[in-house]
Structure formats: C-alpha cells, structure tokens
C-alpha cells in the first residue's frame, strides 16, 4: 500500500515518536511510506526515521494559527497528496489533522485516518475551545477512522460528537518495550536521589510550576536532584527560574536524550505535571522501567498508573498538590520499593510497537471493506 502520514511537527513529543515508529514498521513490512512534516523539527528526530521512508517538508505547516501560512500549507498538502495518490492518508496532531484531512478529501484519497493523540479543545480558553471544537467537527465527516491512544481519548472524542462508536478505535501508542524493561541506569548520573521529569519544554507540561514543588522538597531533602529531560521554547524561562531559586546545583538540564530509558532507570521517582495530554508515552515508559510515578490526572492515565499501587495520581490536576505524594515517597523507602515492584509487574504488552501497527493495519482493512474498496490496490499485503 501507499501510505502518507502528515504531522505538524517532528519534535520529541509522544505523537511524533508514535508516528515515526509507525512509519518505520510499515515500511519494514513492505509498504510505500511518506512522512510529511511541518517547519519545526528537533535535532535528532531525522536520524530515527528509516531511510526507506520518504520524508517531505511542508514549511508553511506550523503549530500556531496563521491564516496566510495555513492556506499555503493546505495548498501544499493538497498538491502533495494529489501527486502521490496514496491509498491511505493518516494525519496526526491538530493542525496537520485538520489541513491534512481537508487535502485528503479534496484529492479523494480512498482511506483517511486521524490519530487522536490529544484533543485541542481540552484545557484551553473558551474562545479556543469553541474554535478548535468547531474545526474538528467540520473535518470529522472526512475521517474514515479515528485512532485514539487511550480509552479516555476515545470517550472524549465521542462525547464531543466526533465520529461514532464504529469509527472510533483505541490503539495504544506503541514502543520498543524491551528497551525500557531491560534498561540499566546511565553511567553519568548525578550524585543523590534523582527525580526524573521527561517532557518537551512547553507551557502545558508545567515544568515551571513543578520547580516550586521541587524547591520545597529540596529544603527538606538535601540529597534530592531533579533531572529534566527535554528541550523546547520554555528552556530559557526554566533556566532563569532555577537560578532565581538557587537550584543550579540541584537541577540538571539534560536536553534531548536518545538514552531516556537509562535516566528513568537511574531515578528513584518519576513525575509528569502536565495540564493537557492524551495518554503520555513517557508515563508508559516510566512504568515499563519499573519506577513509581507521580502524575496529574489525565485522560486514560488510570490504564497505566493505579493510584496508591504503582504511583500516585493527583486528581485535582494542580501541580502544587504533587508535593504531598512526593514527600510521602521520599520519606518512606519501603513504600517506594513496593510501588517500583508493582510497576515492574504491570503487564505493558498492549503498548508494543508491533501490536500498534497490527491494529492500524486491521483498521485500514476494515475501512476498505466497509467502503467497498477491497481490491488488489488496497490489499493489506505489502506492495
């Protein structure tokens, strides 16, 4: 099959990693695969893409709303889809999802899929919620199947009136689980007890607010260290706040890491204070390594972290409320050990990369049959 994936950015986010893994496995199975991305690309992402995947850049495709660039991106995506004439267009993330699905329908692409990694109208202002929900509703009829990364994302999508029970599917965001389940600690770990926070430096990840929590904990626990794994637009603000709090020797900026599993393995506790996510891949990675996790309540998080068993889920969603469970863990090594063991026992098999791609191909096959497209050209067998 000819499959075109379209994504807004290639940074170190979960949607981007998910998309790259999907492309790599599909091309390894013999499909013809294109990956169309927007202007923003993080260092290190291109090297993760299989050489057999054809990568194209649409420079007008940007994350922020920009009527002029959005129209240029739509024209560019339409031109690309028309020239490639794929069997499947699979869009990812909000901006690429909206523009890519419009382009796919304008070109009469046989099958159009959209990955629901996060919903753009959750935890935003009323005006943005109205706008984003309206745009998603407008392109929903152009979508043959929604591929939701968690039960929570599917339920939220349906509650918003996007699609129906037949075309909303749960496909967990797959990864190389063995890489995490067998990880050994990094050799260059800082001295002390390490808390890991792995996330892109974006406002919705709320690292800045978490620094206040860490500062309070650090006053009571002089041996703790915070390892920030990631990069992004908020880094200057975060570095300035660390300096202002006098935490330069306690907070370590580690940048984009290809060995994230080794830093997780070296941690005592892992955290994620995000305001808005789908089902964050990094939490799956924390648990796969076998680390207690403290996380804010997010859609589908209960599928990975059971509050009080292998971590703590802060139901209020407030970053400041993460301090109490972290204090509890830091003050009770036996509790930390029990939660780590519970994390290691958790069955994570449904998050394997192979399972993810198997399910996506099954969905494509069902859509093909439903639309009467089952032919030699649309066979699930590699071309």
TrEMBL record:
<feature type="domain" description="Glycosyl transferase family 1">
    <location>
        <begin position="192"/>
        <end position="346"/>
    </location>
</feature>
<feature type="domain" description="Glycosyltransferase subfamily 4-like N-terminal">
    <location>
        <begin position="25"/>
        <end position="168"/>
    </location>
</feature>
<protein>
    <recommendedName>
        <fullName>Glycosyltransferase subfamily 4-like N-terminal domain-containing protein</fullName>
    </recommendedName>
</protein>
<dbReference type="Pfam" id="PF13579">
    <property type="entry name" value="Glyco_trans_4_4"/>
</dbReference>
<dbReference type="InterPro" id="IPR028098">
    <property type="entry name" value="Glyco_trans_4-like_N"/>
</dbReference>
<dbReference type="Pfam" id="PF00534">
    <property type="entry name" value="Glycos_transf_1"/>
</dbReference>
<dbReference type="InterPro" id="IPR001296">
    <property type="entry name" value="Glyco_trans_1"/>
</dbReference>
């Amino acid at each position: 099959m000819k499959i075109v994936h379209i994504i807004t950015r290639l940074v170190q986010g979960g949607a981007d990693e998910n998309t790259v893994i999907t492309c790599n496995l599909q091309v390894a199975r013999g499909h013809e695969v294109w990956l169309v991305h927007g202007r923003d690309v993080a260092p290190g992402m291109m090297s993760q893409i299989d050489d057999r995947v054809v990568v194209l850049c649409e420079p007008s495709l940007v994350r922020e709303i920009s009527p002029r660039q959005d129209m240029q991106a739509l024209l560019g995506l339409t031109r690309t889809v028309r020239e490639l004439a794929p069997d499947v267009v699979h869009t990812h993330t909000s901006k690429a999802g909206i523009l890519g699905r419009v382009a796919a329908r304008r070109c009469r692409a046989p099958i159009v899929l959209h990955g629901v990694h996060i919903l753009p109208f959750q935890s935003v202002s009323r005006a943005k919620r109205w706008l984003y929900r309206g745009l998603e509703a407008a392109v929903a009829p152009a979508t043959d199947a929604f591929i939701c990364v968690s039960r929570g994302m599917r339920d939220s999508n349906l509650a918003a009136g996007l699609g129906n029970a037949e075309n909303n599917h749960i496909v967990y965001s797959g990864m190389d689980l063995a890489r995490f389940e067998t990880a050994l600690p990094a050799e260059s770990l800082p001295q002390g007890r390490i808390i890991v926070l792995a996330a892109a430096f974006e406002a919705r990840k709320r690292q800045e607010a978490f620094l206040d929590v860490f500062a309070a904990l650090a006053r009571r626990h002089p041996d703790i260290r915070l390892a920030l794994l990631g990069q992004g637009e908020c880094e200057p603000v975060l570095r300035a706040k660390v300096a202002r709090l006098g935490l330069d020797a306690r907070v370590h900026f580690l940048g984009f890491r290809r060995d994230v599993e080794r830093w997780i393995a070296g941690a005592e506790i892992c955290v994620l204070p995000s305001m808005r996510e789908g089902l964050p891949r990094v939490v799956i990675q924390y648990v796969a390594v076998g680390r207690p996790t403290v996380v804010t309540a997010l859609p589908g998080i209960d599928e990975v972290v059971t509050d009080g068993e292998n971590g703590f889920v802060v139901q209020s969603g407030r970053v400041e409320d993460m301090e109490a469970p972290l204090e509890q863990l830091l003050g009770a090594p036996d509790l930390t050990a029990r939660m780590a063991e519970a994390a290691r026992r958790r069955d994570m098999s449904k998050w394997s990369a192979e399972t993810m791609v198997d399910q996506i191909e099954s969905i494509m096959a069902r859509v093909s049959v439903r639309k009467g497209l089952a032919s030699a050209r649309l066979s699930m067998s590699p071309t």
